[in-house]
From TrEMBL:
The keyword Transport applies. Keywords: Coiled coil, Lipid transport, Lipid-binding, Transport. It comes from Felis catus (Cat). This is Oxysterol-binding protein. Residues 23-42, 161-191 are annotated as: Disordered. It comes from the Eukaryota. Residues 132-159 form a coiled coil. Residues 168-178 have a biased composition (Polar residues). Pfam families: Oxysterol_BP. The gene is OSBP2. Belongs to the OSBP family.
Length: 657
């Protein structure tokens, strides 16, 4: 009896939990973008608790009815037992009476179990409500505290800048875009308002410009550390002076102006502190009408630097141009504070510009969580570039860190020189209060794996206290023996120069006890200079000339191409409300696809294994290979895309839009 009673109570628990408690569970087979706490989530939790209470009331009513009808049945059987009936019927009645007794005992056991469950559920329901109320109060308190700290920080910065005797910083102000209007404060900032990171040490060397003739005499005298000046680096002369003639194919030079919609980023981001940015559902209001695949393709804007590097006979000279190319990829980011669209899994983007740029580029989104894109570029001028970049991003309260993970490979076919480097960290500041601005920080090491030449680049963080030029980049190019040949300097948003080192020597120790290297160099040569932005760029998301053409409609591209993404196209046209609706449809479609993969995988393995299998996507145009130089597994181009385009055979492409 006891066993049956326990089984019955377990059935009641199962009934109640299946009817109500499953509302607490999120469908984790879909995209994780839905998991942000919001007022709607809190309302749903309150509704669930209320539904649970109602179900418990129904259960209590059922208990009362079972007890009532059970007692009536027992009385009826007792009355039948008292009647004079034949012996055969009496035996049958006795058996029925025994069964009724068993049912009464079982029902009583179930009723007692239900009462226990009811008391327990009511107790925990009150605990849940108190816990929920406490968490809500704590969250509101935390939000108010962070906002107040941001206001105080802003006030301290303004007070510091207006302090008497402080020299005016000559740097320009960053792009505008206040995301939060503090209550009770004037939201209008002075046009020269700037925000900086903490001070960091400047370069570890000192450069002294000298004349070629003077250093030649020193070299003849056997001065230690000198480098003979030769004409071998004449390719560097005018490396940046590549005329931009009219393109062979006429392309668009403008897009519709960005609508003036006001939306508070803090109202969304305050719920997401410490979370992965790609898992935060964001309206298109904070996007720009390009995907991450197109942003990755923008790195090729200054491809002429690599075309020039093909003709270098000196590997250290070639390294200078490769370094300038690596820095040039950041030049478009200085005003670009909007977020590109997260590509759908399997989304692609091609740039078929053999005629005017001499190259073909293909990107494919090969993973959704974490977001990862594979990229391959072929140039008819004799070089190829490939990379798999995984974007790791975290919101830290006042700033947003974007960390591209993965190695970039560049190979020159004629010489066999193979360069590898990684991107620096990008940081978006003043998420809460003030003007948004972006900074690039960290060190980049470029290695030529054939000659073992190296280039150490340093991106200096913006600082209140630094006397350096804003957004400064410095570097030194050394050969396999560690001997320095060139000094690089410039800024990642404007230009880069190189200067040939004629002599090097240690300096006297500074006040901090550190010793710097003094390089005597020839006058610097300009390697790269940023193209001016198109007219009206401030109303077109600060797009460069190349960026304006990336989303232009083209015939013959794959059905998975970013140009065909409907929400991105609607946003570009200025239809942001429709774009938000379309974005939600696409994300839900992607979640449904993942659920189907999960269901298919669940038939043959456990839940954890199925979830891992469901997250594994087999790219169409790339395949996982072991990179012998980095020791990492990365997606590399396996071929077939351009042949499929020529045949216009896209039957293998998934329907993602």
């Amino acid at each position: 009896m006891k066993g049956r009673g326990c089984w019955e109570s377990a059935s009641v628990r199962s009934f109640c939990s299946s009817g109500c408690l499953n509302k607490f569970k999120k469908d984790d087979s879909g995209d994780e973008d839905d998991e942000t706490a919001s007022p709607a989530d809190k309302s749903e939790l309150h509704s669930t608790i209320k539904s649970l209470s109602l179900k418990l009331d129904d259960l209590s009513t059922c208990n009362d009815l079972i007890a009532k009808h059970g007692a009536a049945l027992q009385r009826s059987l007792s009355e039948l037992d008292s009647l004079k009936i034949p012996y055969e019927s009496s035996e049958k009645l006795k058996a029925v009476n025994e069964r009724a007794t068993l049912f009464r005992i079982t029902s009583n056991a179930m009723i007692n179990a239900c009462k226990d469950f009811l008391e327990l559920a009511e107790t925990h329901s009150r605990k849940w409500q108190r816990a929920l109320q406490y968490e809500q109060e704590q969250r509101i308190h935390l939000e108010e505290t962070i906002e107040q700290l941001a206001k105080q920080h802003n006030s301290l910065e303004r007070a510091f800048r207006s302090a008497p005797g402080r020299a005016t910083n000559p740097t320009k102000s960053f792009s505008e875009g206040s995301l939060l209007t503090p209550k009770g404060e004037d939201s209008e900032e002075d046009e020269d308002t700037e925000y900086f990171d903490a001070m960091e040490d400047s370069t570890s060397f000192i450069t002294v410009i000298t004349e070629a003739k003077e250093d030649s005499r020193k070299a003849e005298g056997g001065t230690t550390g000198s480098v003979d000046w030769t004409s071998s680096d004449n390719v560097l002369d005018g490396a940046s002076l590549v005329p931009k003639g009219p393109p062979k194919v006429k392309r668009r030079v403008r897009i519709p102006d960005k609508p003036n919609y006001s939306l508070n980023l803090w109202s969304i981001m305050k719920n997401c502190i410490g979370r992965e940015l790609s898992k935060i559902p964001m309206p298109v209001n904070f996007n720009e009408p390009l995907s991450m695949l197109q942003r990755l393709t923008e790195d090729l804007e200054y491809h002429h630097l690599l075309d020039k590097a093909v003709h270098c006979t000196s590997s250290v000279e070639q390294m200078c141009l490769v370094a300038a190319f690596s820095v040039s990829s950041y030049s478009t980011t200085v005003h670009r504070i909007a977020k590109p669209f997260n590509p759908m899994l399997g989304e692609t983007f091609e740039l078929d510009r053999l005629d005017d740029m001499g190259l073909r580029s293909l990107c494919e989104q090969v993973s959704h969580h974490p977001p990862s894109a594979a990229h391959y570029v072929f140039s008819k001028h004799g070089w190829s570039l490939w990379q798999e970049i995984t974007i790791s991003s975290k919101f830290r309260g006042k700033y947003l860190s974007i960390m591209p993970l993965g190695a970039i490979h560049l190979e020159f076919q004629a010489s066999g020189n193979h360069y590898v480097w990684r991107k620096s960290t990008s940081t978006v500041h003043n998420i809460i209060v003030g003007k948004l601005w972006i900074d690039q920080t960290g060190d980049i090491e470029i290695v030529n794996h054939k000659t073992k030449d190296r280039c150490q680049l340093k991106f200096l963080p913006y600082s209140y206290f630094s006397k350096e030029v804003a957004r400064k980049v410095t570097g030194v190019v050394s050969d396999s023996q560690g001997k320095a040949h060139y000094v690089l300097s410039g800024s990642w948003d404007e230009q880069m120069e190189c200067a040939k080192i004629m002599q090097s020597s240690p300096s006297s120790p500074g006040s901090d006890g550190k010793q710097k290297t003094v390089y005597q160099t020839l006058p610097a040569k300009l390697l790269w200079k940023k193209y001016p932005l198109p007219e009206n760029a401030e109303n077109m998301y600060y797009f460069s000339e190349l960026a304006l053409t990336l989303n232009e409609h083209e015939e013959g591209v794959a059905p998975t191409d970013s140009r065909l993404r409907p929400d991105q196209r609607l946003m570009e046209k200025g239809h942001w409300d429709e774009a938000n609706t379309e974005k939600q449809r696409l994300e839900e479609k992607q979640r449904v696809s993942r659920r189907r993969r999960l269901e298919a995988c669940s038939r043959g393995c456990g839940t954890e294994e199925a979830e891992k299998e469901a997250d594994v996507y087999v790219p169409l145009w790339f395949e996982k290979r072991l990179d012998p130089l980095t020791g990492e597994t990365a997606c590399m181009y396996k071929g077939g895309y351009w042949e499929a385009k020529e045949r216009q055979d896209w039957h293998m492409c998934p329907n993602i839009f």
